[in-house]
Design a protein that fits this description.
Number of domains: 1
CATH topology: CBS-domain
Strand content: 15-25%
Helix content: 25-40%
Distance between the termini: 6 Å
CATH superfamily: CBS-domain
Structural class: alpha/beta
CATH class: Alpha Beta
Order of helices and strands: HHEHEEHEHEEH
Length: 132
Amino acid sequence: MSRQDFTNSSILVKDIMTKALISVNTETTVFQVAKMMDQGGIGAVLVKKDDHLVGIITDRDYATKIVSNNLPSDTHVEKIMSSPLITINFDEPISAAAQRMTSKKIRKLGVTDNGKIIGLITSTDLVTQLTK
């Protein structure tokens, strides 16, 4: 798939998003989340407070916020999560997701349907699609 094909693609976010969502509450420690990510082979966990999604913690957050600031492993995710969660609607083209990630300098977007998070789309998902 060429860049032109990718930009003009009729493939929608919902076609390549990850539907399995893992979330934790704001009081979960960064150590607990790191173990979850390692065991699950995932790069992001959503963060909830009072049953509402309030942010995301990613593998990048570990490097830029925890390790570089030498924070203890019992730090609550609320202190280092990225918030608010940047989103895109499920029926947008994948080129719109790529543009949003580029403009916001992020690698993961929450996918919404009527304002409700129903999945995640990552830069890896987009690259995988581009190489097909």
